[in-house]
Amino acid sequence: MKAVEIKDSIYWVGAVDWNVRDFHGYETPRGTTYNNYLLMDDDITLVDTVKYDFSEETVKNISGVVEPSRIKNIVINHIENDHVTSLDRIMKLSPGAVIYITEKGRKGLGRFFDISKWKMNVVKTGDTLSIGKRTFLFIETPMLHWPDSMMTYVREEKLLFSQDGFGQHIASSVRFDDEYIACKSTYELDDAVLDYYANILMPFGQIIKGKISEIQRLGLDIDMIAPDHGIIWRNDPGRVLQKYLDMADGKADLSVAIIYDTMWRSTEMMTAPILQGIKDEGVGCRLIKLRTTHMSAAIKEFWKSRGCLVGSPTLNNLLFPTVAEFLTHLRGLRPKNRIMGAFGSYGWGGGAVKEAYEEFGKMGLEAFGPGIQALYKPSADDEKACYDFGREFAKKVKEFHKKF
Length: 404
Ligand code: FEO
Description:
There is one protein chain. The chain is of the alpha/beta class and 404 residues long. It folds into two domains: 245 residues, Metallo-beta-lactamase, Chain A, CATH 3.60.15.10; 149 residues, Flavodoxin domain (Rossmann fold, 3-Layer(aba) Sandwich). It is 37% helix and 23% strand. It is built from 13 helices and 24 strands. A hairpin with a 5-residue loop joins strand 7 and strand 8. Bound molecules: MU-OXO-diiron.
């Protein structure tokens, strides 16, 4: 795609990755973009680069606006591979450019490239850079979501370059939120925001709240947020800021995600009466089978719901491997403000349900225990007990939900 002018003489010069479906293990059914931006001013400035595979595309887009050798400054907001691995290609074309980066970014960049010949200017929160008609303000955002991360604000344009923050994995022929909503839907855009937050930013909710407060304290007026992935927020950037605050506060639906796997369908048979019990308590419920659902889709469903029931057969006295993998992955995301329970079938010794509750304990999540188990194949009595368990769990979820 050609460069797109996002504001007067400010251009998107990134690349659309229509075909990526596995983004370092995270499922991206909508593809993604690697966004970077070119500001035509007295000192021509590039904000961020793109993934190596798309180097030629960004160079072509830049060249469509200006000869790359005229670039004076390159701001690197984040050094993860999808944003920085074409930097050496750009530096070959703009050898005189000065790189603006955080100290942690500078150190990290040295692991990717020989930076000894590059001019680097280390910046920290509050530092500014005048490029002519415009002034940049740098805001460090450590652990949002890497230690090096920062955002760059252009006061005259009320424009925030937010790197991964407020991004979404969406490949599209349009660049802006209003355009995307017009050709898809608000739901589709919101779902992509939630998916991205759940799988990438969930551990950093409190840092996100703190950074948004800092932006408010600094009195930054924002009328456009330009992230490094997906759609640019120009119609209502306040909406995505509020969505982030809500998610950081643990906002969820009054619903339950039943996330399970099964060997000989016994654990699966338990899900139907449990779901019925939850439904009869007036609480929504979704069933997610791990062997047929990608991990990142399961994580998103977990994050949408206030309650989660984990179902696992016992295998060799432990959790079924797919369920163990899900819980390990979830623990890394440091979830909060969710209530958990577990169920499962077993043949002789059992162990999966107990291990699931141990995992909930490690995550510090509230749990409704001790869960429910069925021997070999659920009997009519077991199914009744599952129904009651579902109802009781739904009551707990409703009670718990009132806290938020
Ligand atoms: Fe899109 Fe943290 O990289």
